[in-house]
C-alpha cells in the first residue's frame, strides 16, 4: 500500500524549511457520523475495536477509530507491512510505538473533526491539534500553562481574540513538545508551565532549554483549530 491508496481522507501538510527533512505530517479529516463497520476500518485490531466500543458518544468512537486506522495505513505505507498486522504498543508513560524492526517514530492527535499524524525515521516527534472553542475562558488555565515570558507575549497582543488565539497556539506547541518528550501533560518530568515557547518568530516557537532539546513550529490548521509539531534535536 502507498500513501496514494489510503482509503481515508488524509492530506499531507507542507512543512516550512525550519522542519527537518525526515519529518512528515498529515491532516486527517474525520466523518464523525461514519459507521465503524466500513471496509476501511477492517485494519483495526480487536483491542482497538473494543476500545472504540467503550466510547459513550459515537463521534468520539469515530474520531479514535478514524485516526487509528489512518495511522495503521500510514505506517503500512512506511514499512511495507500489512496494516492490520502491525503491533502498536505503549511505553511506561503511555507513549505509543510501533513494535517493528527499524520502526519509525510517530505521534497522533485529534480534536473535533480533524486529526494529525506525524512520522519520522530520524527523531522523536510530537503533534497536537486543538479545536478552539468560542468564548473559551483561557485565563483560568493560564497559571497551569504559561510562564511569565509566554504571558508577556500574549498580553502584548491587541484584543481578546488575538490573545485567546495565541494561548491556544502556545498550548498546542507545549503539548507537542511534551508528547515528543514522552511525558504528555499528565505530570511527568516537565510541566506545561515549566518551559516557554513564546515569543514566536514566524512559525517557529522559542522553546526554552528547560523542556530539553526540542524545537516546535505552528502548523497550518483548518479554521477554528490550532496545531503544532515538535521534534527532538
UniProtKB/TrEMBL annotation:
It holds the Pfam family ACPS. One of its GO terms (biological process) is lysine biosynthetic process via aminoadipic acid. GO terms for cellular component: cytosol. InterPro entries: 4-PPantetheinyl_Trfase_dom (IPR008278), 4-PPantetheinyl_Trfase_dom_sf (IPR037143), AASDHPPT_N (IPR055066), P-Pant_transferase_sf (IPR050559). Transmembrane segments: none annotated. Residues 42-118 form the 4'-phosphopantetheinyl transferase N-terminal domain. The keyword Transferase applies. Residues 124-228 form the 4'-phosphopantetheinyl transferase domain. Keywords: Transferase. The keyword Transferase applies. Belongs to the P-Pant transferase superfamily. Gsp/Sfp/HetI/AcpT family. This is 4'-phosphopantetheinyl transferase. It comes from Caballeronia calidae.
Amino acid at each position: 500500500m502507498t500513501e496514494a491508496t489510503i482509503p481515508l481522507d488524509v492530506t499531507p501538510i507542507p512543512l516550512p524549511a525550519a522542519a527537518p527533512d525526515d519529518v512528515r505530517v498529515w491532516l486527517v479529516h474525520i466523518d464523525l457520523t461514519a459507521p465503524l463497520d466500513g471496509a476501511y476500518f477492517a485494519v483495526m485490531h480487536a483491542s482497538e475495536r473494543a476500545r472504540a466500543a467503550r466510547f459513550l458518544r459515537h463521534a468520539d468512537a469515530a474520531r479514535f477509530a478514524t485516526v487509528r486506522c489512518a495511522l495503521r495505513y500510514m505506517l503500512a505505507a512506511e514499512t511495507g507491512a500489512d496494516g492490520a498486522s502491525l503491533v502498536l504498543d505503549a511505553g511506561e508513560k503511555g507513549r505509543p510505538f510501533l513494535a517493528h524492526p527499524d520502526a519509525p517514530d510517530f505521534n497522533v492527535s485529534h480534536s473535533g473533526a480533524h486529526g494529525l499524524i506525524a512520522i519520522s525515521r530520524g527523531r522523536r516527534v510530537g503533534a497536537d491539534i486543538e479545536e478552539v472553542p468560542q468564548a473559551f475562558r483561557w485565563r483560568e488555565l493560564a497559571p497551569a500553562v504559561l510562564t511569565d515570558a509566554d504571558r508577556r507575549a500574549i498580553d502584548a497582543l491587541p484584543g481578546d481574540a488575538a490573545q485567546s488565539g495565541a494561548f491556544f497556539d502556545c498550548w498546542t506547541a507545549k503539548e507537542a513538545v511534551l508528547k515528543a518528550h514522552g511525558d504528555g501533560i499528565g505530570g511527568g518530568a516537565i510541566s506545561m508551565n515549566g518551559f516557554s515557547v513564546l515569543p514566536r518568530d514566524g512559525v517557529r516557537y522559542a522553546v526554552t532549554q528547560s523542556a530539553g532539546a526540542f524545537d516546535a513550529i505552528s502548523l497550518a490548521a483548518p479554521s477554528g483549530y490550532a496545531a503544532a509539531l515538535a521534534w527532538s534535536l
